[in-house]
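G., before I forget:
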Amino acid sequence: MEPTRAVHATLADLLDRLLNKGLVVQADLIICMAGVPLIAVNLRAAIAGMETMLEYGLMRDWDAAIRAWECARRGRDGSAIADRPVPAVTCP
Amino acid sequence: MSANQNEAARYVYCIVEGRERASLGNIGVDALEVYTIASGDISAVVHDCPAKPYASDDPEVVKQWVLAHQKVVDAAWERFGTVLPLAFDTMIKGEGDRGPDENVVKWLESERAELRSKFERVRGKAEYGVQVLWDPKVVAEEIVRRNQEIRKIDEEIRTKPKGAAYMYKQKLEKALKLALEREADESFKDFYKRISTVVDEARVEKTKKVENSKQMVMNLSCLACKEKAAALGKVLDEINAREGIFVRFTGPWPPYSFVAAG
């Protein structure tokens, strides 16, 4: 598997790094203008439809997922378990 | 002392190794000239700006700024070999009768030892994002197949009348929920082990919400040289081959996640 940096597929990953990571300039020694423009946070949400969830490793909200599984299995919505789709985080 | 908006500041993109003033051309945000300010053998890659953060109501404008910022860091990476990237919108301004250039130099001097050790940590390496997603429906199917106890409950449902069937369904959902949680936990441990042994460093990040049918079970930032990145690619192929599992592999990024304090 090769890593990708294609903008259309990884803008959210880039934003996450640019806005939340990186070297920090100490405020006491140097007066610096830091601060994430609020719009950038909205941008991330708008572009990627992502938001931070609970702690890593544990996703507690299984209920909806399981109900959906149940539904599909009992054939109520008529759908079969889908063929493997192309994995991607949606970036409209 | 509050910021005077007309005061000059230096927008800092990243730190590189270099002794002399170098120009990277007019590749900065708003096509400003990007150049370096040196303190000894360490330099800051900057452009001149007013002492005011970049902010806009227009997401498209912010997107262009962000992409321009990354282009500069990439250019510096290409030219200087190793970079310590800063977060977006970091600016250093003057103070009293000390101009912004002096403050940049002063900051580099005071951080020298820290910066040196950070250069060594990331030299020859890049950052890669690794996210493992799964389709819980597919994994649940597999659990029902494998797990005798759960399969029994599932079979019981078919034979029961409506009222009792409902209770068994509750029981099934509860059992599946636990089984999925346990599976997520074990998968995480397994994947983390296999990945962290082939890369130089692996850092656990918060999982994110993704498209409806899938869930993220692991989010890592990895630091790796080229050879290890290739080995990582192979491990990810193995993980991706599993039923219901999807791997996102992004990069190479400048080492944003490996330059902060601690």
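Residues 162-198 of chain B form the longest helix (37 residues). The beta strands of chain B are 8-17, 23-25, 34-39, 42-50, 84-85, 91-93, 126-134, 201-204, 215-224, 245-253.

More on Monday.
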